[in-house]
Every structure is written in structure tokens, then in C-alpha cells.
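so i finally got all the pieces together for this one. its two components total, 951 residues if u count the protein bits. some of the lines might not be protein, just check the labels. i wanna see the whole assembly predicted at once instead of chain by chain like last time, that was a mess tbh
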Amino acid sequence: MAQTDSPGGTVSRRDFFKTVGATSLATGVLGAAEAEAQTAGPTAFGPGETPVRLLVNGRVHNLNIEPRVTLLDAVRVRVGMTGNKRVCDRGTCGACTMIVDGRTVYSCSTLAIETQGKQVRTVDGLGTSTTLHPVQEAFCATDGMMCGFCTPGFVVATVALLEKFPHPTEAQARRELDGNVCRCGTFNRVLEAAMLAGRPQAVASSDTPGEIVESEVNRG
Amino acid sequence: MANRIPQRPPVPTESTEAAVKYAWTVPGTNSPLSTSVRRVDGPLKTSGAAKYTYDILRPGMLYGRAVRSPHPHAKIVSIDLSAAQRAPGVKAAVIWKDPGSEAMYHGDVVAAVAADTEERALDAARLAEVRYEVLPHFSREAKSMAADATQVFASGNTRAGRLQEVGDLDVGFKNAAHVLEATYSTQVITHVCLETHGAVCEWNGDNLTAWVSTQGVHATRQQLARALMVPESNVRVICEYMGGGFGSKVAADAPVVLAARLAKDAGVPVRMMLDRKEEHLDSGNRPSAFSKIRAGVSADGQLTAFDGTTWGSGGAGQGAGFPLPYIYQFPNRRRSHTDVFINAGNQRPMRAPGHPQGCFATEVLMDELADLVKMDPLAFRLKNLPPQASNAMWGEYYRIGAQRFGWDKRHPTGDTTPGPIKTGMGLSANQWGGGGRSGNAHVDIMADGSVVVKCGTQDLGTGTRTLLPIIAADMLGLPVNAIRGEIGDTNLPFAGVSGGSTATAGIAPAIRIASGLARDALFARVAPTLGVDPSTLVASDGRIFANNDPSKALTWKAACKLLGAEPISVDGKWEPGLSSVNSSGVQFAEVQVDIETGIVKVLRVLALQDCGLVIDRLTAESQVYGGVISSINYALFEDRLLDRNTGQMVNPNMEQYLLASMSDVPQVEVMLMDQPARGVIGIGEPPTVPTASAITNAVRNATGATIRSLPLHPHRVLEALAQAGMGGTSA
């Protein structure tokens, strides 16, 4: 496992639980030997707040959080970037999808502390509502959204899809977007958006919201 | 009495003077009306900038957490919140159900706490000491309604409905050449709103601001004020964006009231959003439905008789009615219904309440009857439909759809292709009332030419927000993006709950009339300058000009400049003549069934749907796509599973409570059947009614095995195949 010089280094979820177990055991049984036991093994964190340094959308955020806080909650509630949503909270629905070091993760099931030293990208960092990312533009063009609560996750997953396959086949797009769930039922138009954004010379971004769309993607 | 659709007073059909004056003109010249207009909040939603209730972060805000009954039925003996109150970070704790009262289902709220972080609130809730006296419970309808069942519910375990009778059943069965007896059933499903139910509440003295994920800001204000016993005028409810409701967010329910009470006690804002498990247990569901039917058909394919005994459960006290028979005409019929109570979370309206259940039993029965008289299911339906009318267009839509879908390529029941993969087609119809009858709107035209439309409705994701500028732009001759629409706040003019597909038909006439009055007020101010009679003026293409002398013209901006210090500020309300009720639609489905595994895959769906005047084609189509996908979920995946012994829901999550994802989604084609002359009707519910039935009929067509229960999980498909003497790996 790669070690970094950021505070606390990098721990996997398994290591985290292992150290928590070791710590409670040490406190209960070993007493004075605790410090020695800790220096021998991986560093233990928590259960109280501990400094965590996150790199989100290119900006550093120094937080004091309990080690059990997820990446999603750290970003949404502690950093205040609420673009990605919490829905299933179990790594199933994909509304929380973020890109960590180039790979999509379910941020609801990733501990914030284990993403230290890694590049985290969320929907909030892709574009603004006035300067949309081409993927966001495509979602607007095809109406790839309804209530919009799954949309940020789908947008991030589509960005990751296109980084992997710049011009995906429909089968590739379906597969890469299979980790996201929409309850309103926007799948057909989300798929259209992904295909539109992945088309060579995709998406003329001149259309603005409220403008009449003249595009074949609306013809079902 | 054909069914149990709630009866409402008839909609006035007489158009008012304003409705005549501002009648819809479609297609208009250069008008955005009925065209595909992008959702105005698309950029905010796709960039993550749209703020939902779940996203509201207030200074010093606490996190609320409910304490819920772990038992399906128990008397609350005592509640001790002192340990919870002493827990780190806890600032408030309140009791919801008093000792002595009963928790009626697993997940019934008992108390709540609020702490400075969500994690600490969860810890504290676990420290609440509630003593229960566990009582008998029922998790199955059959057990609860059994003659010797223990009485678990105060007013009885069941509630019988009125007997509905039309014609003479004996004559009907005498005229039948074939009689079929079968029982059809559909499961309980939950709404699974992606944004869970809840609120953020903040008091300022005696005034409350509540951000609520709700389908009705005004209705929520009324209920919240009553629950808290404060004047309605002291309460402001805001819902700018909300992550799905589907009928389940029409009331100020426990989390909303608790957030307000905890915030009052703590003296700081409190957020109380349900977690995924709570959302499944205690925020509504679509009731179960069972229909034991005996039906007769004449040798030439005429329906003659229908005798239905039905029951279902809407949980621990709610009804489970549904319309039956659905659409098709049985001249002689009888139907009796019984609501059965079980110890489970209560139902709430869910997308076309009752209709998917009644549609399923009827449409599957129709295919079985068609086979008995050896008729094509389409021809059989055409023979037994009510007479065609603008609100009953099934015959025409079936013919158009059949041609488009390639229905003539459908093989008779049972695909004879060798190998395990069988393909089949099915069809089904829907009906819905819709149509609103109230709503207010306000339009301001400012001297700088800017325009604001205000309406206290809310956008569930249906595209309501986008309708405001479209309707005003059409009237004022401006581009859609030149107009600002404001919704989702009780500080805006009253609009009703967005439910029953009534929102658009309620507010669109109000916006139309308010925009018309605003335009005419502007004409009156402009006319003297142009030296013309106001009645000759036209607003189009960003200009105002006399229709008999186009040289007498002003740009929109120049015209508005004449307003000086006093803007135009007018109100409009819903009036009869611009909207209508009752819509119809049909759907076709093609499926593939693997008879070795029992897995059903939907290949394609065609949906024909009318909704009167279409305002935004793009978002209206999205609603039909969404309805179809929801119904695929109902057909193939969703099932709320209660453990029969413990009464606990065993899949209160999203990994075992299954929903479609991208690979499960078929090709869907949407055909909106425009009826502009009827005015606005609404389209949220009807498209979700028939897909599940069409799929079930397609599976029957593919395999020859009849499945009379949803969902079509592989084990159920294999069971039906085995009964029909086919399928499995040895087939």
C-alpha cells in the first residue's frame, strides 16, 4: 500500500477496522503497553475527531472529523459541496458517484480518511450552471433528468465513461452506467445524453435553457 | 358503479369570459407552446447547484434522528430518553408516541433526538430506552382476514366495501360460452423516493421557516401549523427542488413535524431526513391487491359477465381500493372489496393509485379470455371497449400502435422457436382523470422589460418550473429564457398539491390568464403612445404592434419603458375552459423469456398517451418514459418483503429491494397523442399504469404459461412454466 506524507497517511477500510479492533483490545487488556503496541502496528485513528486532509476538485480541505465519516458526508456536510447526493447509503444506487484517482467510487461507502492523498472529483467541480461541462450540456439537451437527484451521479459516471471510452458503443455506455439507479425513469434519455456527449464533435453548446430544441435526440 | 375511483364534483364545462378571451391558440406562430423546450433548471440540476431539502445547511444546524419501534405491534410501556439526552452532542429529545399507546408496525415512530452531527444523533437514538409489551401481529393478508384470526386492529382486522352491481349476473353467465375462474395478485411496492422524506426547520421567535421535500408547499404549511398549533401565517414552507415524491409527499408527516419540534426545543435549526431503511418502512407504499374473478365470454368474443371478490392491504389502517374491471365493458358485473389490515407501514398514493392493480387483473384476464374464444387479443379488446370519445380513445390508439409496433408479427400464444429463448408481445390500456381545478398565479412586467411569473406550486421533476415561462412567453411574444419563473414557496400565490396529475391543469390556466391580463394592461399603457386602440395590439417576436398597421410598433423594451415607476402586477386564477379531465393511452411490449432460468427481459415498449394540450413536449415525453420504466420495475423487480414471523421488512435497502438499472431498460418509443382543443389535462400518472400488464401478457405470449401474480421474478416464471409442463433446464 502506498504511503504518503499527508497527515495520517493512507489507510484502507480493512486496515481501519483492524486498527480500531487492536486499539480497543489494547486499551482493555494491555493498559500501559498500549503506546508500544501502537508504534509497532499501523497508526490508529478515532474514535474521536482526527485531522483529515482532502483534495477535492483541486482544492485542499483540512477537516477535523471522526474516522467513520464517509467521503460523501465529508464533502457534502463538512466541505459544503452538496452536488453529489446521498440516496441508498450502501453503495448500490450511484447518486454519490465521485472519481478518485481516475476511478469511480461510491463515496457513501468510502471513508473520507482513506482518500487522503488522492484526487477526488465531484459533480461540483465539472462545470458551473453557466459554463456547463459537455456531459452536463448533453444531459440538458436530451432531458436526461427529471427530479434530478440521481443526475449528479449519472453525470459523474458519464464523465468517467467518456474518459475510458471517448466514443463509446451503446453496450459500453450501458455497462459503465449500470451502477446508477434513477427512480423517475430517465434511463433512455441518460443513455442518449451519454451517446450524444461521446459522439465525435459532440454537443453544440449554443442552446440555452428555455430554448426550443431542434435535435433528433428528442424524437424518442 | 364501475369502480372505486374517488368521486369528485364534476368540473364546470362552461368557459368563463377570461377563459374564452385567453383561449389557447395552438399551434401559434413562433410560439414555444407544444414544442420541445429544455428544462429551465437543467443546468442547476446537472451541475449539482440545485439545492434540495437534503442539501440545506443552516448555521448551527442539528441532525434529528427518530427512535422507531422494532416490533410490528407493541404497547409502549415506558420511554426514558435521559441517557440519550446525556449523550455527546445531543441538544434535544422529544416523545412522539406517548406511553400507553401502540406501535402498529416495524418502524413506527416513538421518539426523536437531535445532535450536532448525524453520527452522534444515531448514537444517541440507540440510547433511548423504550419498554414494549409485544402484542400479536399479522404480516400476511390471509392470516389477518381468517375467520378465527385474533383481533389485532381496534376497529377489526378487515373493512368491507360496498357491493357494486350492474346488470344481471345470472343472465351474463347464461350467455357465456366460456367461463374462467382465476385469482390475480399484485405485490406491495414502496415509493423509493431518491431524496428521502424530511425537512429542515428553523425558528425565528414564533415564526418557522421549513424547507420540506414536499409535493405541496401550501398543504404542508396548513398541516404543519395545525400540528404545531401556531398560526398558518407564521409558517413559511420552501421546496425549490425535490428528489421525487410519486404521491408519498403530500402531507406534513412525522419527520417534518419532529424537525420543527426539535428545532423549537433546541433553539437552533434541525434537519431531519429519513435514512433509506426508514424510507421503506414508514413513508408509504402501493397496497397489495388480490382479485378472485369469475368471468364469462360469448362464443363470438363478447364479454358477458364479471364476478369479482377482491381484497388487499394498505398497511395498519389504510385502505387498498382499486378500480375493477378496468376499462373493458362487462354488461353484467358484481364486485365486492375488503380492505385487510396488517402490521406494516401505511400506504400513500403512488403514481395512479389503484390503477396498476386493476389494470393488471383485467388485462391478464382479457388475454386468457381471448384465447378461450381463439381471438387475437387486439381484436378481442376492440370488440369490448367503451364507445370511442375524446376521453376514451383506446380503439384508435390500439390500431395506430399495432401498426407502429408490428403487432401483425405476433405469433399465437406460445413461441414455437426451438431453444430456450422465447419471444412474445403483449398490450394493455390505461385511463386517468387528472385535470386540476384550482391554482393562482401572479405576473409582474417591469419597466426594464423583465418579466416574473410567480406560482406557489412545486416541481417534482415533472418539469412544472419550465411551464411557467413557456406559457407566459407564448402570451407575451417573448423568448422563454426572457421570463423568470418562481415556484416552491408559500410566499408565492396558492397552488394545490402536485398529485393525481392535477398540477399542470390547475396552474396552466391561471398562468395563461395572469399573462393575458398583464399583456392587456401593458397594451392599455402603450396604446396612447402609438395612437391606436389597445384592442388592435399584438405582442409577438419581442415587439408590440397594431395588427392593422404594423408600422405602429414598439420593441418590448421600449414598450415596457413607458411603465415608468409602476410595474404591471396582476393576478390570475384557474377558471374553467382552459383545462379538461380524463385521458387515455395504450402500450405495447415485446419480451424475451429464458425458459431455463426464468429471466424476463423487456426488449421494447411503445407508449401512446394523450394529455390534452401538450405544453412542453420534451418534459411531457420524459414523463411517459418515466412511467414506463416505473411499471417495468413493478413487473419485474420490486417487492416489499415482510418476514411472516417477525413482521420485519427483510429488504429495506436498495440492494435487495430491486430496481431497474441501465442494462434492464428496453428501447422505449413515446407517441404523444395531441388533443390541443381539450386544454391541459396532466400526464404524470397514466403512463405507469399499463406497462406491467403488457409485459405479463407478452410473457404469456412467449411461453404459453399464464402468470397471475407480480412481480415476474424468475422463480415465479419457472413455477408457471413447470405447471404448464415446460421450461427448466430439462425442457
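Strands of chain A lie at 50-56, 59-65, 97-100, 103-106, 119-121.
Chain A touches chain B through 73 residues (CB under 8 Å).
anyway lmk what u think
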